[in-house]
Amino acid sequence: MWLQMIISFFLLLSAFGIVLCKRPLYSALFFLATLLELGVLYLTLSAEFIAVMQILVYAGAILVIFVFVIVLFQDAHAQIEKFSPRVSRSLCLIAFSCFAISLVYLISHLHGTVHTQELFQGFGQVSSIGESLYTMFFFPFEATLVLFLVAIIGAIYLAKKES
Amino acid sequence: MNLSYLICVSLALFSIGILGVLIRRNALVLFLSIEIMLNAANLLFVEFSFSWGDERGLIWVFFVLIVAAMEAAVGLALIIQLFRKTHSVDVDQYLLE
To answer: How close A160 gets to chain B, by Cα (Å)?
Structure first.
């Protein structure tokens, strides 16, 4: 419980770091911190497989592409000026009101308690998730392969230089 | 187990993502903020999966991870193409004709 509180505090802190840091590379590093904290939070919620996948896919694949692209555009980042404070404040107010509205909705619908079910043996482990993926979720799992193929073709087509 | 506290955390994370999309003009940071929002949804999935003892939430997190990876690949290719046209990463410079 205490571990979760501490981790979520740092999670929100590093998420603010992503948004408020002026340099995009620092934002990417704060994103890495956010991912690691989320991984620990998943571990405390007994989702080991998802925690490992989170680190592998996000930190290993997505973040590396991000850092490549950030470094590629190195000179262009400095050109962007700060937002004018008046507009920025009203936009902050919009984001905060989104949070407030969802919080009010949560409080009015949750009635104080969420009862926790007993977890079965091997919950969140590779074996039980893999079994579900290949039985109950077989069609969506195979459909993601087609989606992957389309994404690869699309990315190559888009990144190609026009001749 | 106080789950409502963790639900508030994921709501806050989603709102931070919204804030990033609204106030930042750098296309790459904007994209990172979208990833924060995806992560907030994932966190909510894991929390409810834990609280109900149902593993299907974790499998949907797996699919969301896959979609996020593909989104990053295609989205960054788009940003590279926009950068070649305008020589800027400022989203205000991107004019769609």
So the answer is: 8
Q: Cα B68 vs. chain centroid, distance in angstroms? A: 8
A-chain residues within 8 Å CB-CB of B22?
91-92, 94-95
Query: Do A62 and B79 lie within an 8 Å CB cutoff?
Result: no
Q: Which amino acid is at B55?
A: E
- Which residues in chain A are contacts of B34 at CB distance < 8 A? none
pLDDT tens-digit map of B35-75: 999 999 999 999 988 888 888 889 999 999 999 999 999 99
Q: Please give the biggest Cα pair distance in chain A.
A: 62
Inter-chain touch B18–A98, beta carbons under 8 Å: yes
- What is the pTM for the complete model shown? 0.89
Best CA proximity match to B79, nearest among A24, A57, A159, A28: A159
Mutant choice from A104, A114, A128 vs B, greatest count of B C-beta within 10 A: A114
- Burial of B73 by CB count in 10 Å (0-12 exposed, 13-18 middle, 19+ buried)? buried
| pLDDT value, residue A113 | 57
Report, as an integer, the average pLDDT of A72-84: 71
CB B36, CB B80: distance < 8 Å: no
Rounded to a whole number, what is the distance in Å from the CA of A148 to chain B's nearest CA?
A: 7
Question: Do residues B40 and A104 touch, judged by C-beta distance below 8 A?
Answer: no
B94 φ, ψ to 5°? Answer: -80, 105
